[in-house]
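User: C-alpha cells for both sequences below?

Assistant:
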Amino acid sequence: MQTARRKKLEIVVEALVLRRVEEMLGEAGVRGWTVLPSLEGAGTGGGWSSGDFAPGQEKRLIFAVVSDETAQKALERLAAFFADYPGVVCVSEVEVLRGERFL
C-alpha cells in the first residue's frame, strides 16, 4: 500500500462566515473540502451546543487535505481573517491513499 504525506486543515467557524472561509480556501488553491455541523463543544467561554445560537451563529467544521505548499497559502489567508474573527484553525500531518488527488 503506497501512501503520501499531506496536511489536514481543520477549521471551526461560525456558519455566518462559512462562505467567506470557503472562498479563501479556493483562492489558496484548495480543490476540495468537507463541511460538517458542529453540534457541541467547550472553549475559553465555557460549554455550548448548537441549540444555544441564533441561525447563522451556529458553528461549522471544515476539513481539507492538501499539499504542504497549498496549506501554507491557505494559512496565510486564514491568519489575517482569524486575527479579527473568532474560530479555530488546526493543521496536522496525515498520510493518504491516492496522494495525487490532494494537491
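Moving on to the next sequence.
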Amino acid sequence: MQEKAKKKGFSFPYLFDENQKVTNQYGARVTPHVFLLKKEGSQLKVVYTGAIDNDTQDEKPEKTTYVENAIAALEKGKVPVVASTKAIGCTVKRAK
C-alpha cells in the first residue's frame, strides 16, 4: 500500500487494520465501504458512510460522486447533502 500511495500521490491517511479493530468499530461490511470522518473537538464524527459513487461497474457516463461531494461540502463548512448510501462490494472477511 505504501508503494501504491506514493505512486498515486495519496495525500490522505490510511491504515492497515490487521486485527480488524477499526473495521468492526465502524461496522464495515463490504470493500469498499467508505467512512468519511470530521474532527469535532477531540472526537471523530462520521459525516458520510457508504459507496464511493453510484457506478460500481464504471459504466455510467454521469456518475454521482458521493465521497467527492461530501468532501466538497465539508471544505465549504457545510454538512454533506447525502450522508449515507448503500456500500456495494465484496463482503469483508472477518478474522477468527
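User: Anything stand out in the second?

Assistant: The chain is about 25% helix and 20% strand.
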